[in-house]
């Protein structure tokens, strides 16, 4: 089992190049089945979730290679439409192969997806939307059998909640559907806008991706082709490294970070006393010796405060002056990092979807276990501020979303090693 050992308590200072975004590259990889051509994704992060997505593509007959930050996917040899149970369970994003495969070949067979335990993660909105587009989906002993005997046809889909995954699935299915599809109450995350941009590069006709209302005009699949595309920078990884610098009272320059994607997080850091500025090539942060805890952080769909940054920002405020509330409105069970932070000396109490953080003067290193991807990153942030050595186990969760977190934090001056 791999562990991260972090010797904290020193002020971080340094700069790093930001990795490509996990939540953007995964839908792009599944979109490759639609293009039927060769696609090169540059700035592709080397993450276990990316390898899992590429294994799914390989199992469908595509040829995939990932080296030196470039994923090359040849979808001309796509030959299957069935994804095995083991592959499906490796991550939540496997569900977006449903829309892509239905759009590409009109059928697929898969089981329910896996992913981090953040409470119940149903796929009812995905299934209902794809049915509205003409798919017939049945659940046979845990296997989802999806067909569209009359093809997919455009329609207006009103989402009851702006689900990121459901919006992506509808976009993927609608690219080659007959006629026009309109998504109302679509998710507006920057990763949705990127998926639209990528698909348009490949020949799709999508307008409004990243807005409330997305319009997709179906094109014949033969008009789609592969392309070369640079994966957008990872806003949650950026938030992690900004918070690590802030928690240690240090400074950092995150090259490649886009200010426009991160306003909800940088606003909170500014309120806590940090100087956060856009530098020509990224974001620069300079933190006071002790952060001031902000009153309330409430997670919301984009452009609100991202649920993926909740644990990470909470970890930065574990050592701070003052008191604050964290309200988790997206997922039911996303406070599993709290017990681990408490082992490091944090004073945090939870009740339902609310966590009350009372800032302490001092955190101390401890043996902690990553409860999930972002919870694990949060422990690394707190460890940078804690005196003495912290050992983080269950590093496999962190590796789902961070391309060598130890290298990135090391570049900021953290004493961190993987053993
Ligand atoms: C994506 C992100 C994840 C992020 C989340 C919210 C990827 C790979 N993952 O996850 O990192 O935390 O957005 O920003 O991009 N829901 C339903 N029924 C559905 C679908 C969703 O009830 O059919 C609920 C979920 O349980 C959750 C909420 O809607 O409570 C938001 O989920 P959603 O936006 O779909 O998140 P994901 O796409 O799974």
Walk me through this protein's architecture.
The protein folds into 2 domains: 4-18 and 233-418, UDP-n-acetylglucosamine1-carboxyvinyl-transferase, Chain (Alpha-beta prism); 22-229, UDP-n-acetylglucosamine1-carboxyvinyl-transferase, Chain. 32% of the residues lie in helices and 26% in strands. The chain is built from 14 helices and 25 strands. A hairpin with a 5-residue loop joins strand 11 (205-207) and strand 12 (213-217). Helix 4 (97-105) runs parallel beside helix 6 and helix 8 (235-247) runs parallel beside helix 12 (373-385). It starts with a strand and ends with a strand. The model has no long low-confidence stretch (mean pLDDT 96). It binds uridine-diphosphate-N-acetylglucosamine.
Structural class: alpha/beta
CATH domain class name of the largest domain: Alpha Beta
Number of domains: 2
DSSP strand count: 25
Distance, first to last CA: 9 Å
Q: Output the CATH homologous superfamily of the largest domain.
A: Enolpyruvate transferase domain
Oligomer: single chain
CATH architecture of the largest domain: Alpha-beta prism
Q: What's the CATH topology label of the largest domain?
A: UDP-n-acetylglucosamine1-carboxyvinyl-transferase, Chain
Give the biggest beta sheet: 4 strands, mixed
**Unreliable sequence segments:** none
Mean pLDDT: 96
Hetero groups in this structure are:
uridine-diphosphate-N-acetylglucosamine
Helicity level? 25-40%
- What strand order characterises the main sheet? 23-24-1-25
Give the C-alpha Rg. 21 Å
Categorize the overall geometry.
elongated
């Amino acid at each position: 089992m791999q562990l991260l050992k972090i010797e904290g308590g020193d002020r971080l200072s340094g700069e790093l190049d930001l990795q490509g975004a996990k939540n953007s590259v995964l839908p792009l990889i599944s979109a490759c089945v639609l293009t039927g051509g060769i696609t090169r994704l540059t700035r592709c992060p080397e993450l276990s979730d990316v390898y899992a997505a590429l294994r799914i593509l390989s199992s469908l007959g595509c040829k995939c290679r990932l080296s030196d930050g470039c994923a090359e996917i040849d979808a001309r040899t796509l030959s299957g439409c069935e994804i095995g149970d083991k592959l499906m369970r490796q991550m939540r994003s496997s569900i977006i192969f449903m829309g892509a495969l239905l759009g590409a070949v009109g059928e697929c067979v898969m089981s329910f997806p896996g992913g981090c335990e953040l409470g119940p993660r149903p796929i009812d909105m995905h299934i209902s939307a794809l049915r509205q587009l003409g798919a017939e989906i049945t659940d046979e002993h845990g296997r989802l059998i999806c067909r569209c005997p009359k093809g997919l046809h455009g329609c207006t889909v009103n989402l009851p909640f702006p689900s990121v995954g459901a919006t992506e699935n509808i976009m993927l299915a609608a690219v080659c559907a007959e006629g026009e599809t309109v998504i109302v109450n679509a998710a507006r995350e920057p990763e949705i806008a990127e998926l639209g941009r990528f698909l348009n590069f490949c020949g799709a006709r999508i307008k409004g991706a990243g807005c409330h209302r997305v319009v997709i005009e179906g094109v014949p699949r033969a008009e789609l082709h592969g392309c070369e595309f640079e994966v957008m920078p990872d806003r949650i990884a950026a938030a992690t490294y900004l918070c690590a610098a802030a928690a240690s009272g240090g400074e950092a320059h995150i090259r490649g970070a886009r200010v426009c994607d991160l306003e909800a997080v940088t606003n909170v850091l500014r309120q806590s006393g940090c100087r956060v500025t856009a530098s020509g090539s990224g974001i620069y942060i300079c933190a006071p010796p002790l952060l001031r805890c902000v009153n309330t952080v409430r997670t919301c769909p984009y452009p609100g405060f991202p649920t993926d940054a909740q644990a990470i920002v909470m970890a930065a405020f574990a050592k701070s002056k003052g008191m604050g509330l964290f309200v988790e409105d997206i997922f039911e069970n996303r406070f599993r990092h709290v017990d681990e932070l408490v082992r490091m000396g944090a004073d945090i109490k939870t009740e339902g979807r609310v966590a009350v953080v009372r800032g302490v003067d001092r955190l101390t290193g401890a043996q902690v276990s990553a409860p999930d991807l972002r919870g694990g990153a949060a422990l690394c942030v707190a460890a940078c501020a804690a005196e003495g050595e912290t050992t983080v186990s269950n590093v496999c969760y962190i590796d789902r979303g961070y391309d060598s977190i130890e290298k990135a934090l090391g570049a900021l001056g953290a004493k961190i090693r993987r053993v």
